[in-house]
């Protein structure tokens, strides 16, 4: 599989899962540590538009602020630091993630909006959890006034304001709920 080259100022869906779909987060502290390490290694190199951490996979929606080589190296350092800490904590060795992290370049604003909805609704889809209350998603950062590194204003502008941001999430959630009910 050819790996997409990351380009400065472009938007990407970055994701990966555990090798053989196994856990990559064994507890909530792992998820908190993952977010701290993401900040440590990638602050100022990327802008984050949404994220969600599930037990066996993660999603990030980002824009590159630096050149590809610098960002790719920072991602490598970030993932390595996370894996080393989790392996040590869980007395395990070897790979935690499937090969290279996956990346899909986003081509337009509509796809970006749909992907933000998809990422935020991941807890509903995978855990049948309330996406509004899920702790390890960026959704709450958008509806609160707390300081955040998430590109809140850019995303809310993309949706036409906070009211429409919430409306779109609720509407997509209802569609998922109806679909799940009929299956």
From TrEMBL:
Q: Which organism is it from?
A: Flavobacterium pokkalii
Tell me which SUPFAM superfamilies the record gives.
Transposase IS200-like
Query: Per its UniProt entry, which superkingdom is the organism in?
Result: Bacteria
Q: Which residues form a coiled coil?
A: none
Indicate the segments forming the Transposase IS200-like domain, all copies: 7-122
* Descriptive protein name: Transposase IS200-like domain-containing protein
């Amino acid at each position: 599989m050819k790996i997409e080259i990351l380009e400065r100022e472009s938007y990407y869906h970055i994701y990966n899962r555990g090798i053989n779909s196994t856990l990559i987060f064994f507890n909530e502290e792992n998820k908190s540590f993952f977010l701290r390490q993401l900040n440590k290694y990638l602050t100022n190199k990327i802008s984050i538009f949404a994220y969600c951490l599930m037990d066996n996979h993660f999603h990030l929606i980002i824009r590159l602020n630096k050149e590809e080589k610098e960002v790719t190296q920072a991602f490598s350092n970030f993932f390595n630091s996370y894996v080393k800490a989790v392996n040590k904590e869980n007395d395990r060795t070897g790979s935690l993630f499937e090969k290279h992290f996956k990346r899909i370049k986003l081509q337009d604003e509509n796809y970006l909006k749909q992907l933000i909805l998809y990422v935020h609704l991941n807890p509903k889809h995978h855990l049948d959890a309330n996406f509004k209350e899920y702790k390890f998603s960026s959704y709450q950062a958008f509806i609160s006034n707390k300081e955040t590194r998430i590109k809140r204003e850019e995303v809310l502008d993309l949706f036409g304001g906070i009211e429409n941001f919430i409306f779109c999430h609720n509407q997509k959630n209802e569609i998922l709920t109806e679909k799940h009910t009929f299956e």
